[in-house]
Design goal:
This protein is an alpha/beta fold and about 750 residues long. It contains 22 helices and 24 strands. InterPro entries: FAD-bd_FR_type (IPR017927), Flavdoxin-like (IPR001094), Flavodoxin/NO_synth (IPR008254), Flavoprot_Pyr_Nucl_cyt_Rdtase (IPR001709), Flavoprotein-like_sf (IPR029039), FNR_nucleotide-bd (IPR039261), OxRdtase_FAD/NAD-bd (IPR001433), PepSY-ass_TM (IPR005625).
């Protein structure tokens, strides 16, 4: 719902919003330009009387002096019967230049206010401003949900590509955009009478005027008592009409001034409503608040990019949407599958399950979890397949599920199974699936099979779960869904470096070049994936299926697309089909593969010190991070191998990285050498230095086998103890990341 509230207005209004925002950016510099050209006297330095005296000395035919909120003073005068207007220096009253408002800015203002279409355009601009309020608010809620609550709004944002850019820009700009949209909506609502206007009472001409001989403007007491910075406008009396008066308008109110006595007549302070309206306009335009104008302009500058990335996200989501096969009705279904998904990948698994159950003769009803019915009269099994989002929260298609469960009537014969989809990198791995499992049990439903968690869409884990369910239900259920994108790219092996044969740990660094083929124009326009030149970062995963096998295996990437090479570091497993296949490749051989993003495993960036820990082939992504560290931020590597003569992976590269300071420090440990050390020992040896780094905000990234990762966690727990910290706490702050296999 929240996503629709955000996306739909965005899609409908994107183009108009870009026009509004771009013209807003141009207008946002006006207050700064005006302010830089204006001379603003210090408070108390110059009164309106002084200003009038200086101006009249230079412009004897002065009719009006106007001062903008930016401090620009313009005198309107008549000379030899001809009207004129000059910008003047308030301190001297001397003219600076003829006053000529910019025709270009006027055109942009018209475009911004009304799309150059008068009232119809103004109404459209008002509606767009209101839509923008909706987009900003729903976007802020989505962002808070994604980051794990309002308190976590400043947390590093995981992810990459358009979703990450969209979220980063939105976080930066949302307050500015919301302010512009709210004030713009208010101004439109007032203009079209939807909100009351702040009353500005028209002053009637004073009944009693002295009619005496006019005194010089500089001597009039009412003008002397007003600081020039308060002035809005001073209209001079008609020459040779002793019964006429000065009309004075200031920030506080307006009134008349007797030209002979200097007395203030019929003064009217501004009403609270008028002040409010005035401030809303200032907060929208930044008039007189040049710094705010620039902030609002910067925020508006993000709108074209937000629209573009928003459109890309929508398109990607649409492209990955799964159309479900025929679904039995709620009344007729003997099996129900409910799906909780945000990015649609879980639907692919659900569809496979539904197809296989159909093939086994079941009548399956499949729906989003939010569509939980009150009763499934014929159903004996309820499958829940759900992902987890935010910080252990429900994905959007399951957000109402727990609430709806209150009204659910379960038959005695109904059993349930929960299958969670998540990512082990997140501290609350498959937490929502766990919550659903608990909620169903507390509701009194019987579990048919224990909760199972699938990590990063593993086809193998899904298949294994299918086998277990198959046994429970007594039906064949060969689940084969592999969420790999249908489109793979071709890669050619250009180089391999082999290590570790002598210590029974054959490990190769394999470097591939993508085989190029250009995208067609329509594919580019429709934001289609680059078919053969995928975008990837070190730490993302490379999916490869060995010949004759549909299930892909994943290898952490040791390079980024910008390196121009796709690099993986693969240890040949005993009986490993895929690792054996990769190890058999010779330069010139081609393979097909695809990229799976792994946004949860990336160094924080900026000056944050990074501690990299790995063992064996786990060095792959870590080497990729170091290669990318061209800004020479502090980066330390702790790595464990078997023997320095045989499997010191990346030895020459690491030497170069140390020399050119992409790597700040390197500690190694070898288990089959004289020292017989593991990476944990190398970490303990540097305990005080590491503690200091963590105290200074360091982030730790660990890559390698499960046992090594668990040992490293224990060691860090003990190192962190004196700081009253532990790995779990760092993990919650995104400062302890693992890529474990
Ligand atoms: C912003 C974001 C937050 C996530 N939070 C969690 C989480 O807290 N726990 C977890 O196990 N997985 C988390 N994941 C991983 C997803 O649950 C996982 O990728 C899942 O397969 C997505 O399925 P879906 O595309 O059907 O929504 C998160 C993913 C993203 C992009």
């Amino acid at each position: 719902m929240l996503r629709k509230l955000h996306g739909l207005p965005g899609l409908v209004a994107a183009l108009f919003l870009v026009v509004l925002a771009t013209s807003g950016v141009v207008l946002s510099v006006v207050p700064t330009l005006e302010r830089s050209a204006a001379t603003v006297p210090a408070a108390g330095e110059l009164s309106v009387a002084d200003l009038a005296e200086h101006v009249v000395a230079n412009y004897p035919g002065t009719e009006q002096i106007a001062r903008s909120l930016s401090g620009e003073v313009v005198v309107y005068y008549s000379r030899d019967g001809q009207p004129g207007a000059d910008r003047v220096n308030p301190l001297t009253g001397k003219g600076i230049a003829p006053y000529q408002p910019s025709a270009w800015f006027r055109w942009v203002k018209n475009l911004h206010r009304s799309f150059l279409m008068d009232d119809a355009g103004r109404i459209l601009a008002g509606v767009l401003a209101a839509l923008m309020v909706l987009i900003c608010l729903s976007g802020a809620f989505l962002l808070a949900r994604r980051l794990g609550g309002w308190k976590a709004m400043l947390r590093p944002i995981a992810g990459s590509g358009s979703p990450r850019i969209h979220a980063e820009l939105a976080r930066f700009a949302v307050i500015g955009l919301l302010l512009s949209a709210l004030t713009g909506s208010y101004m439109s609502a007032v203009r079209f009478g939807l909100l009351p206007e702040g009353t500005i009472t028209e002053l009637s001409f004073p009944a009693e005027v002295s009619g005496g001989t006019p005194a010089p403007a500089g001597s009039l007491s009412a003008l002397k008592s007003v600081d020039v910075n308060e002035l809005r406008e001073l209209v001079f009396p008609y020459p040779d009409d002793p019964m006429d008066v000065y009309s004075l308008s200031t920030a506080q109110g307006s009134g008349f001034v007797d030209q002979a006595t200097g007395e203030l007549l019929q003064y009217q302070p501004r009403s609270a409503g008028s002040k409010f309206q005035h401030w809303m306009a200032r907060l929208h335009t930044g008039e007189g608040l040049w710094w705010l104008g620039l902030i609002l302009g910067l925020a508006a500058l993000t709108v074209p990019m937000l629209s573009f990335t928003g459109l890309q996200i929508w398109w990607q989501r649409r492209s990955s949407a799964i159309s479900l096969g025929e679904s039995a009705s709620i009344e007729a279904a003997d099996t129900v599958i409910l799906v909780g998904s945000e990015g649609n990948t879980t639907w692919g698994f659900a569809k496979d399950l539904q197809n296989k159950l159909n093939q086994a003769g079941k009548k399956v009803h499949c729906a989003p979890m939010n569509d939980l019915a009150e009763h499934y009269p014929q159903a004996s099994v309820l499958f829940i397949l759900t992902s987890t989002y935010g910080d252990g929260d429900a994905p959007s298609s399951a957000s109402q599920f727990i609430a709806r469960l209150e009204h659910f009537q379960a038959d005695d014969g109904l059993k349930f199974v929960v299958l969670g989809f998540g990512d082990q990198q997140f501290p609350k791995f498959c937490q929502y699936a766990q919550d659903v499992d608990t909620a169903l049990r507390s509701k009194g439903l019987k579990q048919m099979h224990p909760l199972t968690r699938i990590d990063r869409g593993s086809a193998t884990q899904f298949q294994e779960w299918g086998e277990a369910i198959s046994e429970r239900m007594g039906i064949p259920l060969a689940l084969t869904h592999n969420p790999a994108p249908a489109v793979t790219s071709e890669f050619e092996l250009v180089e391999r470096v082999d290590y570790g044969v002598a210590v029974n740990a054959p490990t190769s660094i394999l470097r591939f070049k993508p085989v190029k083929s250009e995208r067609k124009l329509w594919q580019k326009l429709l934001f289609q994936n680059r078919q053969n030149l995928p975008d990837f970062e070190a730490g993302d995963l490379f999916g490869v299926a060995p010949p004759g096998d549909r299930a892909a295996r994943f290898y952490s990437l040791a390079s980024s697309a910008s390196d121009g090479i796709l690099e993986i570091c693969v240890r040949k497993q005993t009986h490993g089909i895929c690792s054996g296949y990769l190890h058999s490749l010779k330069p010139g051989d081609r393979i097909s593969g695809f990229i799976q993003k792994n946004p949860g495993f990336r160094p924080a960036g900026g000056a944050t010190p990074i501690i990299l820990v790995g063992a064996g082939a786990g060095i792959g992504p870590l080497a990729g991070f170091i290669r990318k560290n061209t800004e020479r931020n502090p980066m330390y590597l702790y790595w464990g191998g078997r023997n320095p003569q045989s499997d010191f992976l990346y030895r020459p590269e690491l030497g170069c990285y140390l020399d050119d300071h992409r790597l700040t420090g390197l500690s190694t440990a070898f288990s089959r050498s004289a020292e017989k050390n593991y990476v944990q020992d190398a970490i303990i040896a540097d305990e005080p230095a590491l503690r200091q780094l963590v105290e200074a905000g360091a982030q730790i990234l660990v890559c390698g086998g499960r046992d090594m990762a668990s040992g490293v966690r224990q060691v860090f727990d003990s190192i962190l103890k004196p700081l009253n910290l532990d790995v779990e706490e760092l993990r919650n702050d995104g400062r302890y990341l693992e890529d474990v296999y």
